[in-house]
Design brief:
The structure is a homodimer of 446-residue chains.
Chain A: H1 5-14, E1 18-20, E2 32-34, H2 36-55, E3 60-62, H3 71-77, H4 79-82, E4 84-89, E5 96-98, E6 118-121, E7 125-127, E8 137-139, H5 145-149, H6 152-159, E9 165-174, E10 189-199, H7 204-221, E11 229-233, E12 245-253, E13 256-267, H8 269-278, E14 284-286, E15 291-293, E16 296-303, H9 304-315, E17 316-321, E18 324-329, E19 340-344, H10 351-362, E20 368-370, H11 376-385, E21 390-394, H12 396-401, E22 403-408, E23 414-418, H13 422-430
Parallel strand pairs in A: 3-9, 19-20, 19-21
Antiparallel strand pairs in A: 1-2, 4-5, 4-6, 7-8, 9-10, 10-16, 11-12, 12-13, 13-16, 14-15, 17-18, 21-22, 22-23
Helix pairs in contact in A: 2-9, 3-8
Chain lengths: 446, 446
């Protein structure tokens, strides 16, 4: 049973995950700002992707291309012609509607008469440079993928890698959506994590299978419950114009099963199009076999913001503990905005110096939060609500024995450990080590 | 004597640091793409900033606001009125020029007659949403700072922090510059690292001094040579309309001393303006003293791309070694795109499995590069050229003694170490430990 979206939106506002953009001016439709907690969760999602896709592999390199690209890129890619939605306009109030959304011939707002459907391009236009001519009309990219395709030749010739080779990118994309909504799920400004994996034709189907499994497993490894995740193959009539085959990884959001990520077999569509439009040879020469060919491309394309939302929703829980309800985010420790909170038992001139020393030590290695206000119980609850996996409590005994208590978010176990070994223990825990309450560490259970 | 910019541009292209955007279509003016090496260096620069500014401090939190903001934000901030350059237009060819750049009354291109100077706003405009009305004209942000100011209230109320409090952000900004240039130094699309540090009036001057020193030292700690860095206080007539005082951190680029970062005392200008335009009370209540006031703001504002460029230029060297010239980037190990290269002595069926095993082990913790083609000497040179601080070489003796050779980029020292302790030793080296060639590790000097 998924949690209400309202509860998530409210938590996000209350605890600094997500604010409405330009809120003091009444907000800007479908734009959102990530607050102090949200920015860390989002950074961790992106870093986890980069680690799995780029750092830990020898067959993928990264790239970071500009949002503004040459307009001919979007002619070649097909976005100028086909990245469109049919819209109708009200002849009276001039409001526009997605044609598929209005069932009758009258405007849903003022009951005015509607025009025939016209195609509306989803790309944002702007003018670049001081000369206001047609030539300087450019688009904000609606996807990061094309930045990869137009650099294929550059990357292959400078990286000294052979196929199969992946090029990965994380960055902002923009789509002038007609009906954005569901919080950060569908927005006009959003962030993409895209991998274009170039392979030889004939191996493309097995690489598609490989990447579908890899990407599905990634979400599971980072804590998404298996029952909330499913794969869905696109029907033939549903495939984009460039796709030979496509699978969506879907998550059970509060509004129902919705796409987290698409893994498509784009064939040789993009490189062929760009070769045709640019006049450049974008084929690949395989020195071992002596063959030259235009590679096929497998594309796992994920949304940062909707992954962020899925991780948040999936981690959300309300638990009964001792007759009280605690709201807790069971986020994977590597995704949690704060890894460790340092909490002196009370704001006290004897405890504060030691607590600050512990904080200073830990913040070299971990995202750390220092809090010395209100009761320790309330501070634990607050950390639970933002998903902090570990709290370190400094009490008066710490002044004598140089030990502190680690409290674990999920199990609520508390163990007593020497300050000196704190960093090492936390590192082991982050690596997935179970909480060891044996006498060696658990010298006291307060 | 600074290196020629041409050499840097050439290295960047050749080794995959920076490519021209949309190059296969003839390029897009002043837009650049970061290649496999560039994206890692840029990520490391941003991560180093985030670690120093957010992670290691208890008085700063992060945020990530949208590029598209409510248009009234830019009225309040003054950008609609004053973020302008005076331009003249040629009546014949309609090319526009910065008025200060044309000394006579004739177009530098076609010698046509020029118009009187008119003000040209540097913000990029676009239309948001399906309704094409004036109300939906929005701007791409020309700085990330305003996203922080309009969220000041949200952050203070949800983060439970007291003043002095900093809010930090890294993100893209856009300025429709008339004369971009000097490679990635001045571009139309660029990345900002901005901190807005909110303090009580009266303490602002000492906080300005504090942040000027902090920021200057940051570049030094990350390896910029002191003689290539200077501070310059703005003259009274040079100050922006919002600034009470401002210092630039300047770097000796090939084109001369140029701004890397500005550290400004913005006073209470921004919060006051937004309070006035939004009708919201943006003052801060100090619970301890019972006072309510509008905070002053100290703003260290740095460019990611120009920091990237400065680190690259400063690290560049050509050295004579054994009668040959090696090109080397003496990048700080925490900034280097690749931390460790794994190089089997030759491509050999006995060496490859062990080398791949070492690579697999190291890439869990470090950005790692595997290369087994061409001679070991050439591979070392290639790693030098992209600034890889450590090369790990696997030779035939490794198969017997489970030891490998670490070769250090700067000292060219080689030490023999057990594979088992490799990760720990590299971690210590990254932490700044000197290269220990004592017999304990240096069991063999090949």
């Amino acid at each position: 049973m998924p949690v209400d979206m309202d509860k998530i939106v409210s938590l996000c506002k209350r605890r600094g995950f997500v604010f409405q953009s330009s809120e003091i001016y009444g907000g800007l439709g479908s734009c959102w700002d990530y607050g102090p907690m949200g920015v860390e969760l989002k950074r961790n999602v992106k870093d986890a992707w980069w680690k799995a896709i780029v750092q830990e592999r020898n067959d993928v390199v990264g790239i970071d291309t500009s949002i503004m690209m040459h307009p001919r890129v979007w002619e070649a890619s097909g976005h100028v012609d086909s990245f469109t939605d049919p819209l109708v306009e009200c002849k009276a109030c001039h409001l526009r509607w997605r044609a598929t959304e209005v069932s009758d011939q009258r405007c849903p707002k003022c009951a005015g008469e509607l025009t025939e459907p016209r195609m509306f391009n989803l790309m944002f236009k702007t003018l670049m440079g001081p000369v206001e001519e047609e030539a300087s009309t450019i688009y904000l990219r609606p996807e990061t993928a094309q930045g990869i395709f137009v650099n294929f030749e550059n990357v292959v010739s400078t990286s000294r890698k052979k196929l199969p080779l992946g090029i990965a990118q994380i960055g902002k994309s923009f789509r002038n959506e007609i009906t954005p909504g569901n919080f950060v799920f569908r927005t006009r400004e959003f962030e993409h994590m895209e991998l274009e994996y170039f392979v030889k034709q004939g191996t493309d189907e097995q690489w598609l299978d490989y990447w579908v499994k890899e990407r599905f497993d990634w979400y599971i490894e980072l804590g998404i419950k298996k029952e909330n995740l499913r794969l869905r193959q696109h029907g033939k009539n549903e495939l984009a114009h460039y796709a030979k085959d496509c699978y969506d990884v879907e998550y059970l959001f509060p509004m129902g099963w919705s796409e987290l990520e698409g893994i498509a077999n784009r064939g040789d569509y993009d490189l062929t199009q760009h070769a045709k439009h640019s006049g450049r040879d974008l084929s690949y020469y395989d020195a071992e076999s002596g063959e030259r060919y235009v590679p096929y491309v497998i594309e796992p394309s994920a949304g940062v913001d909707r992954s962020f939302l899925a991780f948040l929703i999936d981690a959300y829980d309300e638990e009964e503990i001792g007759g009280e309800t605690r709201t807790v985010l069971h986020l994977h420790p590597s995704l949690a905005p704060v890894t460790v909170a340092v909490l002196p038992l009370s704001r006290n001139e004897r405890l504060t110096p030691l607590a600050k020393e512990v904080h200073k030590q830990l913040c070299q290695s971990f995202m750390t939060y220092y809090d010395d206000s209100q009761s320790i119980g309330r501070r634990y609850r607050r950390q639970d609500e933002t998903g902090t996996p570990f709290c370190v409590t400094i009490d008066f005994q710490s002044l004598e024995d140089n030990q502190v208590t680690i409290r674990e978010r999920d199990s609520l176990a508390q163990i007593r450990v020497p300050i000196k070994g704190l960093e090492e223990i936390l590192r082991a825990k982050l690596g997935g080590e179970a909480f060891d309450t044996s006498p060696l560490w658990a010298t006291r259970q307060p």
